[in-house]
Amino acid sequence: MLTEIIWDVDSIITEIFGFQLRWYGLCFAGGFLLGYMVFTRIFRTEGKPEKDLDPLLLTMIISTVLGARIGHYVFYEGSHFLEDPVHFITEMLIPPYAGLASHGGGFGIVFALWLYSRKRPDQPFFWVLDRMSVAVALTGAFIRFGNLMNSEIVGKASDVPWAFVFKQNFEYSQVPRHPAQLYESLSCLLLFIIMYFIWNKYKQRLPDGLLSGLFFTWIFTLRFFYEFLKENQVEFEDGMALNMGQWLSIPMVLFGLFLLSRAYKRGLKPA
């Protein structure tokens, strides 16, 4: 029976001409690529114009990165804005990106897809958001696995048989801990499987908001409870009954439940 798992993975895969190839970047890019392939299949199956795939991919990349980056600074480092606004904005927008907030990424994606759908009557907002939620769930699984490869966003100390000792994270390497990143990664993967099955069975008959409602409810309900197993990301959270991630998850869950209720009342569309 396992007592602990020694996790001693270097976050850097290799270095080529001074450029560092990192596991996190590879997982991030790989997640987007596979998500793009899934969405391409959905797009083609439902007869949407393939010329829109490339601008949609670009929209997703920009909105995810900028939303997650801005969210990180607004939610977790907003107090630094008054100290040096110019440096704050410059560091927030210019790579490398040392901090990304999934809640900010979620806001960014929703807003960007709303703008995208306004110019395409054949792709209403909820049609795009529902189908994109399937791809995002898969991408999220890879991104959270990238966090594991980075030995970041670690869990609290634990004596569960599958606890990880994060040797590369010197601040938290003393004792075994919950592999919280792996919990979230596997949760996203399971959600992707469920959502893809639902889409594949019903396709155009799906009521608007069903898949996106399931996504927001599943991801952020679990995120709320997983936070109890994780170390706080920033110092100011130590004095809070609920940390920032939990407070931000509450409106996301309520939004998801609203979409699910709305979809349930409307029911499946006629075949």
Helical proportion? 55-70%
Distance between the termini: 52 Å
Widest beta sheet: strand line-up = 1-4
Number of strands: 4
- The shape is globular
Helix and strand composition category? mainly alpha
Radius of gyration: 19 Å
The ordered string of helix (H) and strand (E) elements is: EEEHHHHHEHHH
In percent, how much strand structure appears in the residues? 5-15%
Indicate how many domains the architecture comprises.
Answer: 1
List low-confidence stretches: none
Question: How many H/I helices?
Answer: 8
Mean pLDDT, nearest integer?
A: 88
The biggest beta sheet is recorded as:
2 strands, parallel
Concise overview:
It is found in: Cell membrane. Belongs to the Lgt family. This protein has 271 residues and is mostly helical.
General description of the model:
With 271 residues, this protein is mostly helical. The protein has one domain. It is 59% helix and 6% strand. A two-stranded parallel ribbon has the order 1-4. Strands 2-3 form a two-stranded antiparallel sheet. Helix 7 runs antiparallel to helix 8 (244-266). The chain is globular. The model has no long low-confidence stretch (mean pLDDT 88). Catalyzes the transfer of the diacylglyceryl group from phosphatidylglycerol to the sulfhydryl group of the N-terminal cysteine of a prolipoprotein, the first step in the formation of mature lipoproteins.
